[in-house]
Amino acid sequence: MKNKFLGLCLACLCVLILTPLGVSAHHSFGAEYDGEKPITLKGTVTRIDWENPHMHFYLDVKDAAGRVVNWKFEGYPPNMLIRQGWKKEGTLKIGDVVTVFAWRARDGSNLAHSREVTWENGTKLQSGPPAGTGGGGV
Question: Is residue 89 in some structural domain?
Fold first, then answer.
């Protein structure tokens, strides 16, 4: 009886410890991004974070006043990018000039969820799901 109680206590403790980690590890597209606010930006890649749960990359983009503003883009998880034809080393490089189609963050910050990246030579790769598809939609 004592062993069952101890086992139950340990199981409850594990659930309590691990539950918040799983909940905070991911968010919905609609909670952070607005599928009604598409944006297309051209800029120079300054940083790439190829990590789970999503890849992030950063661009220096000139705003309407000519000032350089750094934007952060979220994309698919690395395993999804590989299925789209991306390679961790070599597909997107610091210094590349690219055009990104994305959806803006709801809070108006320089953050967006990317859908497609286009390089200067015309090569295009999907970098995230379309809005409204459940896998990244509203």
Answer: yes
Amino acid at position 33, single letter: Y
Q: How far is CA 114 from the centre of its chain?
A: 7
Tally of structural domains, the chain: 1
- State how far the alpha carbon of 96 is from the alpha carbons of 5, 6, 122, in Å: 59, 57, 13
| Per-residue tokens: 88 | 């961790």
CA neighbor of 100 nearest in space, from 35, 49, 32, 38: 38
> What are the pLDDT digits (tens) for 79-121?
999 999 999 988 999 999 999 999 999 999 999 999 999 999 9
- The parent domain of residue 71 ranges over 29-126
Within-domain flag for 1: no
* Phi, psi angles (nearest 5°) of residue 92: -120, 125
Q: Per residue in 35-93, pLDDT tens? A: 899 999 999 999 999 999 999 999 999 998 999 999 999 999 999 999 999 999 889 99
* pTM, 2 dp: 0.75
Amino acid at 1: M
Any idea what the CATH number is for the domain that residue 45 is in?
A: 2.40.50.1010
